[in-house]
């Protein structure tokens, strides 16, 4: 049984490695992280540092080589019911309409189809796509597909939201709008969020806490910053706040070194 | 080019070809026919024969037989191809074991199997169906096998994160994606089912379009051969039209690149 006072997500000395012997590659080394219920945590770090890997550990899509991963106090074993996942790539079923894509998420919960469709329509309205239920994914724009995916994740009412650079492929303007939509939906019933991004501004604008990871291989968590900006926030507004800039400078000081390391490793590898 | 001018050009090309055929076969140039009637017949005779075939109703029985063989070959070949393709895609070890055998079987020209099938299944429709099945099976099999192995891992991971069990994954992810690949090979597999039926009939049968053509050829009835070919072409166009309309209905969700231009 999930313990109500347990952290939503807790990682203790989690190490992730691929392969074995000489080709063994350690992606993440001894990561400690805890997310309390209702907390919005963003993970930033240079490209390829294993941010997504850490997320997949929590999701149960990957197994750690060492350490312990827990969700609501229970050890992660396979895909766990309380977790919802928003992928960076398009993950909708292309052969289903937007409404069916959202409704199908209720099927594993045993909701009858007629009710699932009604609730799916409500969720499409919440993400601003009430009139688009009959469209197929290829008939929607990238931003609209993300909205459908968001509705598909949230309709199941997961207690922990895992997001892997979900707005990465979108243009800057759409990203800000999607960020606002996410904050809006999240503030209604605060779930724990673990949000991976390479965009520091996005991380600060959205999160309560920003976790900085070092350059890979064997990436570690090098710093954590609490973001005490007032809520509700609006992304394009909060970016202009002087406090925002102070926080950004502080985190960038940690991050810059790691980004440079990655850059040099790649430049060295290419030479 | 507008729809109308396009149609006008197409009719023009048909008329020109018929005119060349007509002049070549019926107008003597310096006492010489460059498309002798004996080898080429004449367009008027051929069209008259086609008309007679439909008017007297003899052709319907043959069309029906060929259609039955085509449909049976298509259904049996598709079901077997999709089933085994699906199975192999989910069991890579099995696929690795059978890989050389499937490649060998597929590289065999299927016409050489016709005599064997004739011995096994007789001169009736089943030897033709068997020939069609060997053609359809491989097209559908390779399509489904390849297609399923390329099922987007993200779509699959997402469905798993939604909490789907194996049965639900089958219904919402694997099955629709298998159907997609069966349908994407629809034109080719229907075409090959028909090839199997007609070639089988041509090599030995008592009815069917292939039999009609073969029979006419046997008595040097060139008019009959051309008439049979024209009926066959009309038949193929009708089937292709039916397949296209089925495809458009079933694959509405698929992006259509040619619509954008």
Oligomer: heterodimer
CATH-wise, what's the superfamily of chain B? Answer: MetI-like
Fraction of helical residues of chain B: over 70%
Determine the fraction of residues in helical runs of chain A and give it as a percent range: 25-40%
The CATH architecture classification of the largest domain in chain A is 3-Layer(aba) Sandwich
Biggest sheet descriptor of chain B: none
Structure annotation, total helices of chain A: 8
Query: How many distinct beta strands of chain B?
Result: 0
Total count of domains of chain A: 2
Instruction: Give the distance, in angstroms, between the N- and C-terminal Cα atoms of chain B.
Output: 14 Å
- Structure classification of chain A: alpha/beta
CATH architectural name of chain B: Orthogonal Bundle
Which residues of chain A sit in consecutive blocks of at least 5 with pLDDT less than 50?
none
Using the coordinates shown, work out and report the CATH topology of chain B. MetI-like fold
Instruction: Say how many strands of chain A there are.
Output: 10
- CATH level-four homologous superfamily name of the largest domain in chain A: P-loop containing nucleotide triphosphate hydrolases
Mean pLDDT of chain A: 88
What does this structure look like?
The complex is a heterodimer of chains A (271) and B (261). With 271 residues, chain A is of the alpha/beta class. Helices cover 37% and strands 22% of the residues of chain A. In chain A, strand 9 and strand 10 form a beta hairpin. In chain A, helix 3 packs across helix 4, helix 4 packs parallel to helix 5 and helix 6 runs antiparallel to helix 8. Chain A is globular, with a radius of gyration of 19 Å. With 261 residues, chain B is an all-alpha fold. Chain B has a single domain, classed as MetI-like (MetI-like fold, Orthogonal Bundle). In chain B, 82% of the residues lie in helices and 0% in strands. Chain B contains 13 helices and no strands. The longest helix of chain B has 33 residues. Chain B is elongated. The two termini of chain B are 14 Å apart. At the A-B interface, strand 6 of A face helix 8 and helix 9 of B.
């Amino acid at each position: 049984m999930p313990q109500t006072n347990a952290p939503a997500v807790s990682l203790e000395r989690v190490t992730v490695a691929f392969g074995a012997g000489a080709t063994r590659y350690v992606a993440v080394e001894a990561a400690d992280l805890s997310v309390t219920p209702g907390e919005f945590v963003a993970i930033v770090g240079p490209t390829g540092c294993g941010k997504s890997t850490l997320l997949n550990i929590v999701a149960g899509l990957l197994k750690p080589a060492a350490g312990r991963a827990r969700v609501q106090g229970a050890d992660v074993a396979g895909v766990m019911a309380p977790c919802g996942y928003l992928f960076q790539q398009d993950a909708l079923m292309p052969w289903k309409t937007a409404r069916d894509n959202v409704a199908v998420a209720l099927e594993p919960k045993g909701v009858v189809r007629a009710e699932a469709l009604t609730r799916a329509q409500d969720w499409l309205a919440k993400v601003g796509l009430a009139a688009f239920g009959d469209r197929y994914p290829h008939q929607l724009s990238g931003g609209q597909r993300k909205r459908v995916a968001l509705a598909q994740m949230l309709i199941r009412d997961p207690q922990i939201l895992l997001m892997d650079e979900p707005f990465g492929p979108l243009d800057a303007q759409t990203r800000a709008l999607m960020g606002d939509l996410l904050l809006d939906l999240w503030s209604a019933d605060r779930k724990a969020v673990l949000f991976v991004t390479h965009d520091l501004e996005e991380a600060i604008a959205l999160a309560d806490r920003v976790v900085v990871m070092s350059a890979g291989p064997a990436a570690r968590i090098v710093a954590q910053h609490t973001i005490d900006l007032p809520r509700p926030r609006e992304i394009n507004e909060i970016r202009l706040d002087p406090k925002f800039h102070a926080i950004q400078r502080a985190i960038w000081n940690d991050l810059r070194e790691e980004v440079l390391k990655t850059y040099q490793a790649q430049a060295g590898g290419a030479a | 080019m507008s729809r109308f001018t396009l149609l006008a050009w197409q009719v023009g090309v048909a008329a020109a070809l018929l005119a060349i055929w007509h002049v070549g076969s019926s107008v003597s140039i310096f006492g010489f026919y460059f498309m002798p009637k004996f080898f080429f017949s004449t367009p008027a005779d051929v069209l008259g024969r086609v008309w007679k075939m439909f008017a007297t109703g003899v052709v319907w029985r043959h069309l029906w037989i060929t259609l039955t063989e085509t449909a049976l070959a298509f259904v049996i070949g598709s079901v077997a191809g999709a089933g085994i393709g699906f199975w192999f895609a989910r069991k890579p070890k099995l696929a690795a074991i059978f890989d050389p055998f499937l490649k060998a079987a597929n590289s065999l020209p299927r016409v050489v199997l016709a005599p064997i099938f004739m011995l096994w299944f007789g001169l009736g429709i089943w030897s033709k169906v068997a020939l069609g099945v060997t053609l359809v099976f491989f097209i559908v099999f390779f399509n489904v096998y390849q297609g399923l192995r390329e099922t987007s891992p993200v779509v699959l991971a997402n469905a798993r994160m939604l909490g789907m069990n194996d049965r639900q994954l089958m219904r919402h992810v694997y099955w629709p994606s298998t159907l997609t690949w069966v349908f994407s090979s629809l034109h080719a597999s229907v075409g090959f089912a028909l090839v199997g039926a007609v070639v089988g009939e041509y090599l030995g049968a008592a009815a069917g379009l292939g039999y009609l053509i073969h029979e006419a050829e046997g008595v040097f009835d060139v008019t009959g051969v051309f008439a049979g070919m024209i009926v066959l072409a009309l038949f193929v166009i009708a089937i292709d039209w039916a397949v296209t309309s089925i495809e458009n209905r079933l694959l509405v969700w698929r992006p259509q690149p040619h619509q954008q231009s």
